[in-house]
Amino acid sequence: MSSPNFNKLLLDISNQLSGDHLAQLKFLVREQVGKKDLERVTSGLVLFQILTERELLAAGRTDYLAGLLRDIHRDDLSDRLTDSGPDDPEPDPEAAKLDAAAPVVAENLGRSWRKLGRRLGLSEARLESVAGRHPSDLEEAAVELLKEWRRTGAGRVQIQDLIQALRACQFNLTADRVEDRLKELGLC
Q1: Which of 28, 115, 173, 174 has the smallest number of Cβ neighbours within 10 A?
Q2: Using CA atoms, how far apart are residues 156 and 92, in angstroms rounded to an integer?
Q3: How many other CB atoms are there within 10 angstroms of residue 184's CB atom?
């Protein structure tokens, strides 16, 4: 992973850390970082800079931070860090279909987005993470849910899996609308 993409990933991870999570991370690294440097840590970014200076974190060396994130029960962020692959992955033939389906699902899912997430095989920790990022915006929670599912599936997710999960959750109208949208775009 290139340095700009790695930095972008670290920025995103930092933005998703709560104050409590940051305090837990500071506690876990106190021996490696030292009291003086810990005092200046006010965000995940500052902590990541210190870890980089101490050669505990780099684009090709993420195991230490991934382990820390797992220790504070942020497996979703740890997975994002360890799943980040090459800069130019092969194009996913299902990506256009899934991109077209996401807004349709988000518009029609409402409060039942967790039910779909469970059917798609997402862990409770990932569902809680999505809920924490979008506590009052159900549409954004649904979009984030689909992003998490795609991230965890890493190339194995297919539109048919999404449609089957919708139907299994009794969201037949939404599944029909997804299929209609795909036909409109000529993606079926």
Answers
A1: 173
A2: 9
A3: 10
